[in-house]
Amino acid sequence: MAKYTVVSPVLQGGVIFTSGEIELDDNQAERLLELGVIEGEIPEEEKDLEDMSATELKSYAKKNEIDLGGATKKEDVLNAILEAEANKGKEDGE
Predict the structure, then answer these.
(1) Residue 72 CB neighbour total at 10 angstroms
(2) Taking the model in full, what pTM does it have?
(3) What strands lie across the sheet with 2-6, from one edge to the other?
(4) In the prediction, which pLDDT does 94 show?
(5) Within 13 Å of residue 12, how many CA atoms lie on the same side as its CB?
(6) Residues contacting residue 27 through CB under 8 Å, at least 6 positions apart
């Protein structure tokens, strides 16, 4: 799901958005873009892994198809991600 800028009032999920940002899936965004009530996708800010919360790290791992091997604590999740990315870098370099 991506974030978009609301430019006209829109009813989404039982909530009226009159301005600001709204998070939508591709189908919802396409429909609302055609209606002209939202503007293009807002790019996600790049954030250092070390600055992410455990929830953000888990989302990052899922998005990048990284197996966390049962890690639940922030430190363990971060280490699993860093190890997976280091191993991927080695595989890409071969």
Answers:
(1) 9
(2) 0.52
(3) 20-24, 2-6, 38-42
(4) 53
(5) 20
(6) none
Residue 63 has which token pair? 């998005």
Q: Residue 7 in 3-state DSSP?
A: coil
List, for residues 20-78, the tens digit of each pLDDT value: 999 999 899 999 999 999 998 887 777 789 988 888 889 889 888 999 999 999 999 99
State the Cα–Cα distance between residues 85 and 27, nearest whole angstrom. 32
Give the CA-trace dihedral at 10, 13, 14, 20, to 10 degrees: -40
Token output for 28:
């919802």
Give the closest residue to 52 by CA, choosing from 76, 72, 73, 78: 78
Please tell me the predicted confidence (pLDDT) of residue 92. 67
Burial 4-25 (b: 16+ CB within 10 A, else e): bebeeebeeeeeebeeeebebe
